[in-house]
Amino acid sequence: MKIGIIGIGFVGLSFAAVLGSKGYEVLAIDSDQDKVKKIIKGNTPFYEPSLSPLLQKALKKSLEVSSNTEKAVNECNLIFITVGTPTTSDGNINLNSLKAVAKTIGQTLTNSKNKPIIAIKSTVIPGTNHIIKQIIEKESKKKSGKDFGMISNPEFLREGKAVDDTFNPHIVVIGGEDCKTINKVKKFYEGFYKSTVPYITTNTQTAEMIKYANNSFLATKISFINQIANICQSIPGTNVDDVAKAIGIDPRIGGQFLKAGPGYGGSCLPKDIKALISFSESYGQSPTLLKAVQTANSQQVEILVSFMNKVLTSLKGKKISVLGLSFKENSDDTRESVSINLIKKLLKHKVKIIAHDPMAIENTRKIIGDKISYTKSIVEALKDSECVIIMTPWKNYTKLNNKDLKLMKSKIIIDTRRLLTKKKLDAKYFAIGLGSSN
Ligand code: UGA
Q1: CB distance 202 to 175 below 8 Å
Q2: Is pLDDT of 70 > 90?
Q3: Confidence class of residue 195 from pLDDT cuts 50, 70 and 90?
Q4: Cβ(12) to ligand 1 under 6 A?
Q5: Exposed/middle/buried for 242, CB within 10 Å: 0-12, 13-18, 19+?
Q6: Which atom of ligand 1 is the closest one to the Cα of 155?
Q7: Among candidates 215, 123, 149, 208, which has minimal Cα distance to 173?
């Protein structure tokens, strides 16, 4: 079986590298030729742990990378579409890349003997698979279910853990219109994954909805625990991590995604909840809970800025060190990063910022430019600073000690991820979710 993957972003590249490393014949396609050139040389266009060596292994084995979509349509049995679906200004998702790919697939199929299955992995609102099918049918003058197959196959991998999640997914969701096509895709996955992986087979629109429900629920859990953390913070001696641990043991709640912090960011949760709100409103629904989740998330950073203003008496002219710029650890991705949002808000108060991140400085510079200074040394970040705020839970920040803090002008730590709770620090220490006397 030959596999096509159209769109080499996080999902596409991780999937291509994992399949290729296992010897599957894979054709990975992207219209961005510079990106293709880089990947052919074994270089990943973003930082993701373990992906680079895996890509190099896949390229040596059976992974071919190019911009030739037609080749994939003519030669592959199963074609995954993994192009981006960014948000438009009104909160809807932009399907332009997906529609352009569908057009090329349709036009190529017109004169092709191949009868591929097209599986959409990109996150798309319910009903999109149907729209894409219609484009392919119109362009090819062929019929879905007879001349080609259509599947919705959402992806659940996380950045920073993309390789692991691709090797060991917690679920495989396959949405389709006919059992024959669904079973072919299921068989492909069964040949690859452990027998314990649960499969959900359903129709295309339900598969599409599952992805939105999944990400929206994760966002809800985070906003919930963040509100609990804010309440804990005003009760002396209270610790949100113990609260989260205890409620997480209840199997009806579950322990994951209960780490309180400055709010969720990244290219997925904020975008997906926004799209689900906009989509449901277009059907006359009022998604009050989803909107509250979103509001709670954007308030979290406002609360931080007010807190800093209070602790520092006034923010104006203060030198502040921001530790962590990426939206999460083990990633250089700064899309919708709460840290970047915080920096933008702090700059309005005319503070001087020095920022540290092991991986995300270049991506931050593209957004913030030289309005702040950057360093790859934590010690340098702390020098003469009047307050340090930990935003991203990079492991290195847990090593901060009193010797490092000596360099600060005034020793104030705000720890949004509670990385230093166990340390005896010679500083004024505040953490999200810790009541004052802790
Ligand atoms: C998210 C989902 O977790 C994946 O299942 C999904 O496939 C992906 O979106 C997607 O739709 O492509 P990702 O955005 O990579 O994955 O990262 P997460 O681990 O979900 O983290 C998102 C944000 O939530 C980060 O800012 C993180 O710091 C924050 N977070 C996460 C918390 O504040 N607390 C938690 O307990 C967990």
Answers
A1: yes
A2: yes
A3: confident
A4: no
A5: exposed
A6: 7
A7: 208
Residue 232 annotated in active site: no
Burial 248-266 (b: 16+ CB within 10 A, else e): beeeeeeeebbbbbbbbbb
Residue 58 CB less than 6 A away from ligand 1: no
Question: Quick one: pLDDT at residue 438?
Answer: 44
Give residue-wise pLDDT tens across range 11-49: 999 999 999 999 999 999 999 999 999 999 999 999 999
pTM of the model: 0.96
Q: Is 270 in the pocket of ligand 1 (CB under 6 A)?
A: no
- Pick the residue whose CA is nearest to atom 36 on ligand 1: 257
- Ligand 1, atom 30, residue with closest C-alpha: 264
User: 258 CB under 6 A from ligand 1?
Assistant: yes
pLDDT (mean) for 192-212: 95
Tell the residue nearest (CA) to atom 17 of ligand 1. Answer: 158
- Rounded to an integer, the average pLDDT of 95-117 is 97
Ligand 1 centroid to Cα of residue 267, in Å, is: 9
| Residues 227, 231, 233: CA angle, nearest 5 degrees | 115
What pLDDT does 425 receive? 95
pLDDT at 3 exceeding the cut of 90: yes
Q: Which residues pair with 29 in a beta bridge?
A: 6, 66
List the one residue out of 113, 183, 120, 186 whose CA is nearest residue 147: 113
Q: Is 46 in the pocket of ligand 1 (CB under 6 A)?
A: no
